[in-house]
């Protein structure tokens, strides 16, 4: 005999164990809130842009020059994060971090089909992030002349310091929302698992489902009614005793 589960039974299971679901769901929410606001260090991001162009004085820039510059951009992206540049950035800013750590903080990306290169920096200190981005661009502009004997780099836009910067991570609201969804999923899974492992018989419907036989009669529980009657009889006896005593 096949067992079928109706939507009503599913909703009844969820309703019966709603407190377990909510309790399990609130645990990851609390953990996520504590981590997002009190444990994880906020990270700020800023960026500066450099322009790769051919400096030919009064000569016009040709399509061949632009194509050459675009081919050089990939090389420049590597040079910007090389020790030849970052060593001087660490020295000029008197940073305590190593070149390897500074390298991990910098992300160099060229705009698609353009000669613009963006130097993005992430740091716990927003003011320091601005300094690193601008200094990296300035050092690269200066050193590329010595490294490749070319002078085709100019700073297009400097990074600016915002008085009220917003961290890019963590994102507390997003983290809490994800934690809530995950917690609810786990809670629902636990609720159905407990229901599946519960083999106790609670109603005549359970008897029909397990034995496959119709229920002929049901014996109601008389405990509450008997207790109520005893309480009423006790009150009557007390009243009688008071009447006799008076």
Automatic annotation (TrEMBL):
Full protein name: Capsular biosynthesis protein
Presence of the UniProt keyword Transmembrane helix in the record: yes
Residues in Tyrosine-protein kinase G-rich domain copies: 141-193
Protein keywords: Cell membrane, Membrane, Transmembrane, Transmembrane helix
Pfam families: GNVR, Wzz
Subcellular location(s) of the protein: Cell membrane
Family recorded in the similarity comment: Belongs to the CpsC/CapA family.
Molecular function per GO: protein tyrosine kinase activity
Membrane topology type: Multi-pass membrane protein
Limits of the Polysaccharide chain length determinant N-terminal domain: 3-93
